[in-house]
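ok so for the tutorial part 2 we go from a plain amino acid sequence to predicted structure tokens. step 1 is just haveing the sequence, like this:
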Amino acid sequence: MDSTRAVTRVVAEFATTWLDGPRPSVCVGLSGGADSLALTATAVGAGLDVTALVVDHGLQKGSAGVAARAAETARGLGADARVLEVRVGTRGGLEAAARDARYAALDAAREGRPVLLAHTADDQAETVLLGLARGSGARSIAGMRAWKAPWGRPLLQVRRMQTLAVCTELGLAMHHDPHNRDPRFTRVRLRAEVIPLLDDVLRGGVVDALVRTADGLQDDNDALDGWADAVWEKAGTPAGLEIAPLHDLPRAVRTRVIRRWLIDIGATEPTHRVIGAVDRLVVGPAAGSAQVAIGGDPGVRTVVERVGETLTVRLTKR
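step 2 — the prediction. this is what the tokens look like for a chain of 318 residues:
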């Protein structure tokens, strides 16, 4: 039972650090796979009041049965359990659409409680590699955070082999999702091909190194975000974003202020390209005709433009 005790300690330490009360009430996102079963079991073992939320995406034949068995297993471990049926759309591809549907269902069902998710160190390594390949900056390469309310990830320092060991020690029947072996999905190929190759070439330790990279970048991001927040207090006005407080800032801070403003005016997770284009309005010559499209609805486009020493936003017809 060595793995079970070790992972239970990790979950208990997470709860002490991030959650309130001697027996916090939490939800756990449970798929029936090894990672989420291990998290459910060790969260109960750590003394948390656990409700397992099992999302049935309806994407595979027999998914309702898989969800029902996962819920029953959770109850056998001492947790409450609910099955959440969702409809998966098509926006952004199957993987992204399923993720969006899952998070929306978990958020709607949590009833004010935090939701613990079973992402492991291996998942974090994959996330860092994906961010690196996209070239989307330090925020993306920093990966997933252990805590970003209401989402908690206690297992980010735990390897997948440990969650498998927990399930073996406790005699838990794991569901093996065929999507996790489908090479159509980028994450599957990273897991099955890229990371093993990197481990071979670099003589091991790749997952741990990528996790350390994420942790270090999160600390850097926190420091830069704090600086940007202080500038935002001066630069953000009802009329727009004042440019003068942005003069002489390092680009890393300036672009964070711009990102904060774009989100404030309704942009949804602005891309590296959009933030860079708006930044060029700030550092370039004052030209009222220059503008950057940041989104919009059919028939209407939302654009940012520089008017004198202020960035403003307006709607235009397409």
